[in-house]
Amino acid sequence: MKPDVQLSRLTAGGLHEPDAEWTEKGFGHVNSALTELLEQTGAEVIRYDSVRQESEIAHSLDQVNKLYELVGTSIVEYKFLVPQTLPSKSNRFDWTLGAESVREIREQSGADYALFVYLHDSYATSGRVGVMLIGAFFGVGVPTRRQVAFSSLVDLRSGDVVWFNWLRTPTGGTLREAEPASRAVETLMSELPIL
């Protein structure tokens, strides 16, 4: 699937303002690193390009990507972050997008699995840095960066998430540059079953 990459400015008030130029650069670096990594696996990689599809199918894909964002965020929050761990999920990993949700992808692509990559990163504005300095003066911690990144392999027959990985700590550098983006992709893909 097309990687979901968004780079934004973290404002003084804590809002994330997407930056189109940064996002385009970040997407290019992430996509290149991902392509290079997957080409080394020997697996047949089918790119699913929704732009060329009918508008109804493209809309359906957008909905699947939004669903994946919610499921992936829930996995991180309720499976891996200890205080919020769900008792029903503590000893097993059974997350799904649902067979019906991914049916169109399987029918259109003929693929058995879909690889989803979600990578959103934000960088502090000068106003945010000022708020951080004022907060530090009063003993209050104010974050200046927020990076959320996870990847999954989804079985397109069942919709089940069969593999999941996430970045536990932000990668050094900015994803607007090739090397930090490549490190982020390598970390996200580090235990992918086909590597």
Salient structural properties:
alpha+beta, five-stranded mixed β-sheet, 5 strands, 42% helix, globular
What is the radius of gyration computed over CA atoms, rounded to a whole number of angstroms?
18 Å
Shape: globular
Question: SSE order, as H and E?
Answer: EEHHHEHEEH
- Counting DSSP H or I runs of 4 or more residues, the number of helices is 5
Describe the oligomeric state of these chains in a short phrase: single chain
Tell me the strand order in the biggest sheet.
Answer: 2-1-3-4-5
Terminal-residue CA separation: 17 Å
Describe the protein in words:
The protein contains five helices and five strands, in the order E-E-H-H-H-E-H-E-E-H. The mean pLDDT is 83. With 195 residues, it is of the alpha+beta class. Strand 1 (4-10) and strand 2 form a beta hairpin. It is globular. The chain has a five-stranded mixed sheet, with helices on both faces. The relative contact order is 0.20.
Give the secondary structure arrangement, pairings included.
Blueprint: E1 4-10, E2 16-18, H1 20-39, H2 55-80, H3 99-109, E3 113-124, H4 126-137, E4 145-155, E5 161-166, H5 178-189
Parallel strand pairs: 1-3
Antiparallel strand pairs: 1-2, 3-4, 4-5
Concise structural overview:
By secondary structure, the protein is of the alpha+beta class. The chain has five helices and five strands.
